[in-house]
Amino acid sequence: MTWGPIVVGVDLSPEAKGAAVVGERIACLAGAPCHVVHAVRDAWAPLVAVSADPQVADMQQLQLAVARHHVNELLGASVSDLARRKLDVLFGPAAVVLQQVTRDERPGLVVLGGKHHSVLERWLGGSTSLHMVRAAEVPVLITAGTPTAYKRVLVAADLSKAAGPTIGLAERFARLVGAELRVLTVFEPLPDLTGIPPVDPTKYFALAQETLQRDIWPLVKTPAVEKFVRHGTVVDTLLRECTDWKADVLVVGSHGKGWAQRVLLGSVTEQLINHLPTSLLVAPVGVAAAALEKRKKRQPAVAAR
Questions:
Q1: How many structural domains does the chain have?
Q2: Torsion, CA 7, CA 9, CA 14, CA 18, rounded to 10
Q3: Under 8 Å CB-to-CB from 23, ≥6 apart: which residues?
Q4: What CATH number did the domain enclosing 203 receive?
Q5: Could you tell me the pTM of the whole model?
Q6: Structural domain that includes position 137
Q7: Which tens digits make up the pLDDT trace of 62-108?
Q8: Based on the domain organization, do 169 and 51 belong to the same domain?
């Protein structure tokens, strides 16, 4: 399986510059083109809606040219001349623009610069990274800084169907960058719920371990990969393991929870994006599965015509 083009979304932040450097480096390793994309708000859209004056269109082009100049100034010599020449500056919200580019180009990976957002910022709409992880059907790499190399890749594998695609992506990425791979499963403590008889934790964890060894560990195809279990809450455990092992990339699966679930509970993936302990590679398990199911349902109707 080839990676296809690598799409890098950039704004005018230092984090975006780091993402562009990482994205082009990965594209070189994969033998794939690197497509840098910058989104800008169309300041002239209200006038375009009510006027066909060609001067308005000229002002739009000027705005795009100025934005292109600013991005090229930011990137400087950090990326190749080819990457800067192929830079696309498009009107629209960043997440919407990137989703459209992703649908059009079917990239193997989208790369974004990671940032820490306040609680208020997340409530008001979150980050482009969050929006892309929620909606993208392709893997998303959220970079933390500009690492000179990816040497250690840690993948979080749970006991769900998400484990297969997540482990598969981690193995492909580790092979691409020449990194050591570890597979971690976290067993969370059983909840203590009022009115519900307690479950024997010994039997529960024995069953979980049996399921892990029968269904999950065989999914790992890379030889001599260390596979281990930790007990604790998922996010805290992953944060600790990333720090202790000095992981360069943490690979997780996005289960595609509904909006209400995310607002009320948050997801492991989104909490990790907000903490960003290291670069985070997200396998779009839930979104991709939903999209595939939708395509399957449409096929019989198309064939019947």
A1: 2
A2: -10
A3: 6, 7, 8, 34, 36, 109, 111, 141
A4: 3.40.50.620
A5: 0.86
A6: 1-123+130-144
A7: 999 999 999 999 999 999 999 999 899 999 999 999 999 999 999 99
A8: no
